[in-house]
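Risk register update: the risk of archive-format incompatibility is retired. Evidence:
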Amino acid sequence: MNATADTATPVQAPRRPTLPAPLALPLRLIPGPVHSTLLTTALNVLFAAGIREGEFDFLRDRLLLIRLRDAGVEYRLRFAGPAGFVPGAQAAPADLSISGTLYDFLVLATRREDSDTLFFSRRVLMEGDTALGLELKNWLDSQDLDATGGPLPPLLRATSALLRVHERFSGRTA
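Archived output:
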């Protein structure tokens, strides 16, 4: 991520790091369905217990679009019940679109910043079915991700440690 200088004025928010263009370019060359397949496979592994317990039934057959603005990558997925998450149709309109930078999604996932702060400051944007978006945000807020077991807690701890190192060297705090 590029370390950008915080040049905040009373009316301007501090600039956040973005994925450098040379790192984003290879991601843009990978077809969208491949990105979606990789994400859905990871979600099915990370949230296998929750899928079995029906935690994601509120997302059943709803098309989600997740857009990493700085990477120029989109992930389309839907929840298919016991089959878990599956890639969504590329041409179908999304029920809910969520967009943000890689940095903002990482601080959201690691809880280094409050989800309300990210959504209300419009760093992470939700468009489409606002009731579905609110339900998804509330689900995220209610999760004790350290209790999920499996590879997710160590992955989040490692990501959080990397963010701390980045913030220390860039003079930024999350």
